[in-house]
Design a protein that fits this description.
Layout lengths: L4 H6 L3 H7 L21 E3 L28 H4 L5 H17 L4 E3 L22 H16 L4 E7 L12 E3 L2 H8 L1 H10 L3 E4 L3 E2 L2 E2 L4 H11 L5 E4 L7 H7 L11 H11 L5 H19 L9 H15 L1 E5 L11 E5 L33 E5 L11 H13 L2 E7 L18 H13 L3 E6 L14 E4 L7 H9 L31 E3 L8 H6 L17 E8 L10 E9 L5 E11 L10 E10 L4 E8 L1 H4 L1 E3 L4 E3 L3 E10 L2 E10 L15 H6 L4 H15 L8 H6 L2 H9 L6 H4 L4 H14 L1
GO molecular function, one term: beta-glucosidase activity
Organism: Blautia luti
InterPro entries: Cellulose_deg_GH3, Fn3-like, GH, Glyco_hydro_3_C, Glyco_hydro_3_C_sf, Glyco_hydro_3_N, Glyco_hydro_3_N_sf, Ig-like_fold
Amino acid sequence: MKRDLKKIVSQMTLEEKAGMCSGLDFWHLKHVERLGIPEVMVSDGPHGLRKQDDKGDHLGMNDSIKAVCFPPAALSACSFDRKLMEEMGKTIGKEAQANDVSIVLGPAVNIKRSPLCGRNFEYYSEDPYLAGEIAAAFINGVQSQHVGTSIKHFAANNQEYHRMSNSSEADERTLREIYFPAFETAVKKAQPYTFMCSYNQINGTFASENKWLLTDVLRGDWGFKGYVMSDWGAVNDRVKGLEAGLELEMPSSNGVNDALIVQAVKDGSLKEDILDQAVERILRIIFEYADNRAPQEFTMEKDHEEARHIAEESMVLLKNDGQILPLKASEKVAFIGGFAKKPRFQGGGSSHINCFKITNALDSVPSDAQVTYAEGFPADKDLYDDALAAEAIKAAAAADKVVIFAGLPDSFESEGYDRSHMRLPECQNRLIAEILKVQPNTVIVLHNGSPVELPWLNDIKGLLEAYLGGQAGGTAVANILYGKVNPSGKLAETMPLKLSDNPSYLNFGGGEKVEYREGVFVGYRYYDTKEMDVAYPFGYGLSYTTFACSDLKISNENPTDKDTVTVSVDVTNTGNMAGKEVVQLYVKDCTSSAIRPEKELKGFEKVFLNPGETKTVTMELDKRSFAWYNTELHDWFAASGEYKLLVGTSSRNIRLEGRIHLNSSQELPMHVHMNTTLGELFRNPKTSETAKELTAKYISAMNVGEESSSEAASEAVTEEMTEAMTDSMPLRALVSFGGYSREELTEIIEKLNKLV
């Protein structure tokens, strides 16, 4: 149905228009019955619906409907599977239609700057390329059902401490390369119906009233077409926010801020055109849902099985010494730890789902498996109980193998606050150490929303990172442990050895200003560039089979920055079990045009292979794959020169390497002045000849290298020293060292600036 939105807006009173720009209550938008504008509902839902009635509170649980909890983002991103994430989105979109929800508040794509952020379980990755690709797939899935998404939290929302007021202090290059791209990719590949702005300030301006963020970048640079809503309670100055590009305030302000909008229009401080445009944008999304309403059955049992499948595709096998896994039904196995019976499968806060059904690993093992259970330690607190421990140690000693279900209790990580350390509860580490004294054949399954320190890593034989597996995660764990499923997840974040290794360690958390001093060196970009030991690198994950990569082909080894480069590689299953491998493509800039990370992920594909089977995987690179953000150009810049294309199965396991020479059509702007160095002039083809002339006169004036020089002088002023001094010699110094006058240099500089 084609609607004339401008006509509808023109028929609204000023008060009705202002009212449309804030919620009716916590979850509903306002309606205007006389104009046929319906009331619609939004709901939390990055990994499942949390639908509440109009009396619900943003963080509460009591009024939520029974629903399906899919694996949270911390786990699902480890699937490295766009198609799987699109299917998950499609299912959540159908669930939203079944429950008359018009907008799902998600996905959350903020970068995992520090392992301590209390909300990391809701975020996809430390890598903006992976986060953007996964988010776009999810959004396309949800919106295929005419249900909107609200990608969040825009932007630089990377901690919970003082999240409603602190200022994220980051330079533009860092924002453009690390904290913006996941949002940008989502706009360009999926066009989310709505954006949710974050609570925090960015460089001193609240996101909710940041025109550069909400209008210049989001709409101007990326082409966003939907509306922007506030995070719940994120509005600071409502009129300023509306002018900046914040269309919808959530939740209701009980008319207070609506009245400010009305007053601003009446006194002329706010143009009514701005208000009209905001209302039109909101109405377009309301009718997109209302005109495509498709009531259907809420297929919870079917969706539960899909949640299990997603968990199975995403869990990461990190260690498997001596092929201790998969377990055999004939083996006597002891399951130890409260999480075996009561798994922690989702995080706390606004995304918490009221599940209709929950599975655990203990009840999900094969019917003929020989499994005994000892609690050992509780799942909900850090308490070492001597009796429980003694029972667990006895069970461990009597078994062939032990699986310890460890992890973080709900109280250790949640929305609203950040972790203070990266350790597991001490009771768990203590019992693990005791069990290892009597049973070397030990496997650990982790239930956590973000990395933990692993003090026992060298002493165990198996490690399965289950993260938070959603309501069917227990079955997924059992199916992987017993080989019904071959694990294929890859880490979407680096697991550092200890907290202090993290690049944000000295600049995370406290204070009203949080300085992002690590710049673009986040996650593996930092660890790999520093060649620092980590527990497990980004992109890492084992399988019960083995794979080989071969025959790297590059479609164009001398592209321009306007060309697309196709990279293909053959992948072979060299083992005896069907499985999936994730091929990862990294780019290394060898041009020295800027300080850049050692390598950056620019492509990935997940491929299924039967034993002995080979398939060709292809990935495409464009200018952005090679570029960095240049703040002088206010654009992405890919320098001419050599780039390495690195194909591997993690950021630290590069199997194949190729090279290209990029021919760029861009040039960096150059303005020559008195402090421009001779080295800078040498490196620009347009000024290099003049640099040679200036240097020749400078060398001659300094009388360096003459035969008459004494031996002592030659030792004092070496050729290497002369080259280095010349490279960093500012033009102004040629008055003292080159015999030039200021007037001569001014004239030379004018000529050089005409050349560049």
